Amino acid sequence: MTRDLRMLFGSNDQELSTDEAFTDRQAQWAHVTAALTEHLRQVSAPGFDVEDLEAPRRNVLHFHGVGGIGKSTLSRKIEAALAGSGRPAHWPEAGPPGVRVVPVRIDLARSAGMDFEQIVLTLRLALTRIGRPLPAFDVALRRYWETVHPGEPLEEYLKRGGLARTFGQALPQQMKSALADVAQALLLPGTIGTVVGEVVGSLVTALRERRQTVRALSGCRRLADLLEAEPDLDALSYYPHLLAWEIARLPGERVVPVVLFDTFEDTGDRTRREMERLLQRVVWLMPNALFVLTGRSRLEWAEDALAGQLDHTGPAAWPDLADPATVVPAPRIAGSPRVPERQVLIGDFSPEDCDGYLARRLTRNSRPLIDAALRQVISDRSHGLPLYLDLAVMRVLQLHRTGRTPTPADFDADFPALISRTLQDLTPDERHVLRSATLFDSFDIPLATKASGLAHEAAALRLTERPFIRHHPFGLWPYHLHALIRSTLRTADDPTDDRWSPTDWQHAAERAFAALGDQWHTDTRDRLLLVGCLRQGLALARDFRLSPGWLTDAAFAYVGDSVWEPITLSAPITTGPEGPERSEGMGAATPADLVVDLLSTLARRQREHRGHTVDKLTRLIDSGLLGDDLTVMAVYYRAKARRDIGHPEASRRDYQHVADHGGRLAAAARRGLAKAAHLAGDFPTAHTAAQQLGWEGRHQRVLGGLYWLQGEPERAAAAYLAGRTEAEEHAVRGEAAHNQAKRALAIAFTDPHLADDELDLAYHLLTGLDLRATTINTEIAALVRDAGHDTVDDRVRTLRAELDIAGLISKLPTLEIAAAFHQAVLDDDQALSGTLGRLREQTRGGMHTYAIDIVHFMAGLPLPDGHAPARWLDDEQTTRSRWRGLVIRRQNLLRTRRSTSG
Predict the structure, then answer these.
(1) Distance CA 464, CA 480 (A)
(2) Are 73 and 79 in contact (CB under 8 A)?
(3) What value does the mean pLDDT take over residues 109-131?
(4) pLDDT for 57-82, tens place per residue?
């Protein structure tokens, strides 16, 4: 383990062990070994030429991720593992026998103060480990040094910069040896070997004349040109070509340099790429070296748009770095290994890694200082971000110095340092967009731009390329922020110079809220967009106490489709000292809270007893805080729920209130009043009312419900088909499913075979919808289709229990009619008697009494004395004949099937 000096000097406790913990990055090491294996295969392939300057380059592996994810630690660990001095036991070895891997890590951070000249020197110094001069490069470097640094010995420069301490003084000796060897080959006096200008001049002449005395160097086709070029920084950037050539011709074991460039983001930005240009040139000119880069952002070299800023750009130059969709894959030879991924996003730590890190970071007597329960709390809050873990360890150490044992409450606040680390390499516009983006669970470029108030999208486009922005291309909005970074930016004290005031946050929230509304209005028929805008808009309105605005229209659109996806919001993310307060009881402190409670109640009624729905809606209505339109919505759906639990008079009053109020639900309320007449058995009144409802009142569904009760299923099926067609034309999926389920029920009475197809369509239309009552309607339709078969009775009992649990009392008479149809087909008088007994109990309040009439009609029985018959659309005898005829038709069908099968 490497001692962590910062932690070591953070406490007087001598028993406290503060080791630098390296959390397993085995997946990343697997990428390194795979890339190295593939690199060795390529450089060993016939036809590979280190001097080919036009072939695509495949010698880069790039790890990128958010600040604090552990990239530098990974880079150091890779260097140590390749050097053989620090490879974890469970990491496999890299490189086959007979290959010497020479790793060299160069930190490009601004704080490291590494300029390009030092980078080239470091590369050459690392190769001194080979133990032999590299004369082509060494002569060129010696000429450069004496021209650019006259009078400054290289030895002194290396000592002053600390490079001599790392690599020793082998380079000056090897350079002198190379110069002397060249002088000797040129038959120059031995003393002149140190006069580099004379040696270079003679060497260039000899190379041009192709003398045999310099045949060892004449194979380097571009050496003479490089020696003749003015020895400046630009020329120096081409010298790595000489290194690559020298490495390629080394005798004996193969040498493979692995160059690790860390903190690559500090080489410049989108408008200043001078250092990046020089470094890319090094990579291009050394195709037999593997370069492992670590940085914050994805490497952009494979983008054609950078042509002119860098020497080599586009997917043809860097096929392994390009988006796979932009590259035409080369034919793959059978048996050849798969090319490993070269742009690797370093992900967050797993929960196990987080726990291991915290357990090993601080120990006392070889035992973790942070107990398991606290490690769990810190791990959960970190969302796997290593920087948070490190900051949490520092907080533990601070508390330890005060003599207090840390508790979970000590980690309820985020760390401001996360903000500065995240923002440090962003432009002012990018920082502005980033803060705006924290207002969204997910976003796209237009949303982020509008929320920021900027007039152009460039900053948002650049921001989406940062590793703390996660991309899901198939999402409604494809981008979202790393969860910990988002919450920290929203809640922690911002230490930066351009931090936002509470007013800035409020204005950004208003812009974000308006942007969501604008986006929904671009396509109000897109259900996915509606629900997404509702969820995000409601959260913003709640957290920043915004007026509902477009949310009211969106809420009506939500209920109008009858789909009922859950509308649940995460806990509030408060910004600034004052967050939303929730009062006791209902706890709705903002208009948005009330909308959430209302819509959630309506959605949950598909999964809970309708009596609970009535209670919740009543509390919302009685609060007086919903506003007129949403109060009417609550009253309307309370009317439906009251009807379902068997309270017809209270339901009728609610429907009448909504109808009298007018507005968007008036037509639906008039349908409810027509349904009330229907339930009372007053079919002529219900029929007359249905004629006035139109599409808004779902007139075809109401008519269909009247017709099948008259014993006219074919007529009902036609009305339901018309209703389904209207719903599809208006893109109302829930209504289409309602009509199709009832159409399947109607057809099931007349044609069981055709009912199969209608039921299949009903189930298909219900896919993705949360419509409990409609689903039960399809199950009842299936019972009618199967009337006369021995599986029906058990299924009827199951459905009775389900309706009771759901509180859908109003559906029970329809189920009993289906059961009675089955019993009448079988002439099961005893079962029919039981069904009639249940119906008498269910209709004691005066509703659904027509079901008793229908059961008697089907069984060919007279109505009981004292029973008040329903008012049918036709006379009673005609209706009786129709229902009895349906039973006889099914009996005949079953007899025909039995005789055919027999």
Answers:
(1) 9
(2) no
(3) 87
(4) 999 999 887 766 678 888 888 888 88
Q: Return the pLDDT at 512.
A: 96
Pairing of strands 367-368, 362-364: antiparallel
Residue 213: which residues within 8 A CB-CB, separation 6 or more? 185, 186, 187, 206
Query: Among the residues of 453-574, which ranges form H helices?
Result: 458-463, 483-491, 502-521, 527-543, 550-560
CB 393 within 8 A of CB 8: no
Whole-number average pLDDT of the chain = 83
Query: pLDDT higher for 170 or 317?
Result: 317
Pairing of strands 343-345, 362-364: unpaired
pLDDT tens digits, 230-242: 989 999 999 999 9
- How far the first Cα of the chain sits from its last, in Å, is 84
Q: How big is the chain by its Cα radius of gyration, in Å?
A: 40
pLDDT the model gives residue 278: 94
Query: What ranges do the domains of the chain cover?
Result: 5-23+349-412, 25-112+256-346, 133-249, 416-500, 687-899
Query: What is the predicted pLDDT for the residue at 854?
Result: 94
At 340 the pLDDT is: 61
Q: Which residues, 6 or more positions from 65, have their beta carbon under 8 angstroms from its beta carbon? A: 71, 296, 345, 346, 347, 467
Residue among 31, 83, 60 at smallest CA distance from 345: 31
Among the CATH numbers 3.30.420, 3.10.620, 2.60.420, 3.40.50, which is that of 25-112+256-346? Answer: 3.40.50
DSSP 10-61: T---TTEEEB------HHHHHHHHHHHHHHHHHHHSTT--TT-SSS----EE
Q: Give just the sign of the alpha carbon dihedral 140, 142, 143, 144.
A: positive
**Cα(226)–Cα(139) distance, rounded to whole angstroms?**
11
The more confidently predicted of residues 18 and 857 is: 857
For 121, 153, 223, 248, 691, the CA distances from 239, given in Å and listed in that order, are: 11, 20, 9, 15, 90
- Between strands 469-471 and 479-481, the pairing is antiparallel
Close Cβ partners of 358 (under 8 Å, ≥ 6 residues apart): 368, 370, 375, 378, 379, 389, 392, 393
Q: What is the pLDDT of residue 577?
A: 37
Q: For the segment 647-661, what is each residue's pLDDT rounded down to a tens digit?
A: 888 988 998 998 998
Q: Is the dihedral of CA 264, 266, 267, 270 positive or negative?
A: positive
The answer, yes or no, to whether residue 205 has pLDDT greater than 80, is no
Tokens of 734: 């829930």
DSSP β-bridge partners for residue 38? none
Reduce the DSSP state of residue 381 to 3 states and report it.
helix
Q: What is the DSSP letter of 405?
A: -
For residue 596, give the amino acid letter: V
pLDDT above 70 as % of the chain: 87
Ramachandran category for residue 887: left, alpha or beta (phi over 0 → left; psi -120 to 50 → alpha): alpha
- Sign for the CA dihedral angle at 135, 140, 141, 147 comes to positive
14/589 Cα distance (integer angstroms): 53
CB atoms closer than 10 angstroms to residue 85: 9
Q: Are 436 and 451 in contact (CB under 8 A)?
A: yes
Interval 382-415: pLDDT, tens: 777 777 787 888 888 777 777 788 888 887 766 7
> 416-500 has which fold?
Arc Repressor Mutant, subunit A (1.10.10)
Query: Measuring CA to CA, how many Å separate 349 from each of 62, 352, 368, 384, 454?
Result: 19, 8, 19, 4, 35
Q: Residue 831 phi/psi, 5° resolution?
A: -65, -40
More confident residue, 581 or 860: 860
Answer yes or no: is pLDDT of 822 > 90: yes
Helices and strands (DSSP H and E) totals, the chain: 41, 10
d(CA 799, CA 763): 17
pLDDT score for 216: 63
- For residue range 335-355, what is the model confidence (pLDDT) as tens digits? 444 456 788 877 677 787 788
